[in-house]
Amino acid sequence: MSSKGGYKVLVVDDEEDILELLKYNLQKEGFDVKTASNGMKAVDIAKSYIPDLVVLDIMMPNQDGVETCRQLREIPDLQHSYILFLTARAEEYSEIAAFDVGADDYIVKPIKPRALMSRITALFRRKRSDKVQKSTIKVKDLVIDKSSYTVTQRDKNITLPKKEFELLFYLAQNPNKVHTRDELLQNIWGSDVYVLARTVDVHIRKVREKIGEGYISTLKGVGYKFETN
User: What is the DSSP letter of 220?
Assistant: First the structure.
């Protein structure tokens, strides 16, 4: 067992020097590390390696990081894994796209190795502190099962990426109460991750598209509320 609890990290980047630098620093901190030079190879490795964390670039040939993240989130064994984007793309739309497909953190290059290790350690600190909740929430025709990360509606399975599920579960667990964007950012993404407030709006919209209207209401200028009536 390593000093980092045996955590496995998959680093994905098309630049060999960045792969080697990240691998060296992660292994020095006690992580088990594998690398991939493109998104398609990363998905293949992840299916058998089952990393606890994927560090992912966006700009890669053939298949970019956003599409790779989307495919990784479709692998059942990776539902509880963290995906951290480390990229030179600083545009707001790139960050929103990354969180929209299930990213847990988004870091713009360049970043010093020690600062990156601090962000990664913060993610795993959240992982250790997370309590596995076995509860199932049933509201109207919606069943939200935290133990299996599944949502069903009238016996039909609804697929939600990790952050969309956690957002829905949090709202449903605290119903009929208005939650501000800041509160949702704090409880779903954590204080160690910088996320745009607009990201909450995007995730709410995606959840509504999948479960339908009538569950999550908006109080303009304040936040969101899960309705049980």
Answer: T
* DSSP SS3 for 219: strand
Each residue of 93-112: pLDDT tens digit?
A: 888 888 888 888 899 988 88
The radius of gyration of the chain from alpha carbons, rounded to an integer in Å, stands at 18
8-129, CATH topology level = Rossmann fold (3.40.50)
**Dist. CA 99–CA 102, nearest whole Å:** 5
The class that CATH gives domain 136-226 is: mainly alpha
Token pair recorded at residue 19? 């792969």
The pLDDT tens digits of the residues spanning 121-140 come to 888 876 655 544 447 888 88
Return the domain boundaries, the chain: 8-129, 136-226
Query: Residue 42: what residue type?
Result: A
Q: Which residues of 18-50 are buried (b: 16+ CB within 10 A; e: fewer)?
A: bbeebbebbeebebbbbbbbbbebbbebbeebe
For residue 177, which amino acid is it? K
